[in-house]
Amino acid sequence: MRIAVTGATGRVGRHVVALLADDGHDVVRLSRTHGVNVVTGVGLAQALARVECVIDAASGSAAGQARPTPDAALEFFAAAADNLHRIGHAVEVQRMVEVSVIGVDQFTSGHGAAKYAHEQRMLNGPVPVRVLRAAQFHEFVPQLIDWGIDGGIARVPTMRIHSVAARSVARGLVDLATDPEWAARPTRAEPPFPEIAGPDEGDPVEMATRFVTHHRLPLRIHAVTPDDPIYTDGRLLAGPHAARTGPTFEKWLNSATAAPPVRAVDTTGCSSAADSSGRHDTSPANRCPQRPVTCAQRNSRVVLDR
Ligand SMILES: NC(=O)c1ccc[n+]([C@@H]2O[C@H](COP(=O)([O-])OP(=O)(O)OC[C@H]3O[C@@H](n4cnc5c(N)ncnc54)[C@H](OP(=O)(O)O)[C@@H]3O)[C@@H](O)[C@H]2O)c1
Questions:
Q1: Where does ligand 1 bind, in terms of residues with CB under 6 Å?
Q2: How far apart are CA 306 and CA 300, in angstroms?
Q3: Does domain 2-136+163-199+231-246 have CATH number 3.30.470.30?
Q4: Least confident among 99-103, 114-118, 135-139, 287-291
C-alpha cells in the first residue's frame, strides 16, 4: 500500500514511517526536510500522486525552537488540513488518519483549542478521515523541559496524563490506516473516537525530574500550575474505552532506542559578566553565586534533541 506520512521526521511520524516500512508498505515521507510544505502546499501534489492513504502527524513545532503561539498553531493546522483535503482529493487520495489528543474537545482556548479545530477541519473535508486520540507522548516531557528552560531551571506544567510512547501511538495509526475493512469502504469516523494511552497516570513535573536525573542534566525542575483547570482536573486522562499500552515512562526512559538523544551542556545561571573577548570574570567578587564556572559554561545552555 502506498501511504504518505506528514510530519515524517517528528516524534510520532518517524515511528510511523519506520513501522510502515517494516510492514513492507511504500512510504512517502512528507516534511519540509523532504521538500514538502503542508502549509504552503509546495511539493504536496507531486508527493501525493498515487498515494492511497495519508497519516497526518505534522505539527507546527520545530526542533529547538520556541513553542508556536496558539494563533500560529491554529493557522498551521487550518492551512495543513485544507491543503491535505484539497490536494489529496484532487489526486484521489482515498482516506486519511489524523492523530489527535485525548480530551481535545474540552479545550476552549490555547493550543488545545487549535488542535480541536484541526480535528474538526480534518473530519469535515472531502476525504474520509479516521481520528486516533492519543495521550501526551513520553517524548513530550523533554519538549516541555526544553520550552521551560530558564538558566539552571526548567519550568514544567503540572498535569494529570496517561503518557504513552510515541512508537505505540504510531502502531495504532498504522493499524487504522491499513485496516482492510476501512480500506474497502472508507467512511468518515464518528465519535466516540478511539483513544490510546500509556499504562500509568503521571505528572510531567515528576517525569521531568526523573528525566533530568536519568540524563544527569544540570537542571532543576520547577512546577508551574497551568491557568486552565483542564490540565489538572482529570479531563485529559484516558477514557474507559482507551487502548492502554506500554512501555511505561520508566521503561521508555531506560530504553536506548526510545529515549531521545540529549545534547546537554552545562547551564548555571551564573550572573558574572563577560568581558569584550567573551571571557568571564571568575574572580571572587564576580563569581557565579551558584558555583564557580568557566566562560564556556556560562555561555552554554541545555539543548534537548527530539
Ligand atoms: N506531542 C504529543 O505529546 C502529542 C500527543 C497527542 C497528539 N499529538 C499530535 O501528534 C501530531 C504530531 O506531533 P509531534 O509531537 O510528533 O510533532 P513534532 O515532533 O513537533 O514534529 C512535527 C513534524 O511536522 C513537520 N512539519 C512542521 N512544519 C511543517 C510544514 N510547514 N510542512 C510540512 N511538515 C511540517 C516537521 O518536519 P519539518 O520540520 O522537517 O518540516 C516534523 O516532522 C500533532 O498533530 C500533535 O497534535 C502530539
A1: 6-13, 31-33, 36-39, 57-62, 99, 101, 115, 134, 136-137, 140, 306
A2: 19
A3: no
A4: 287-291
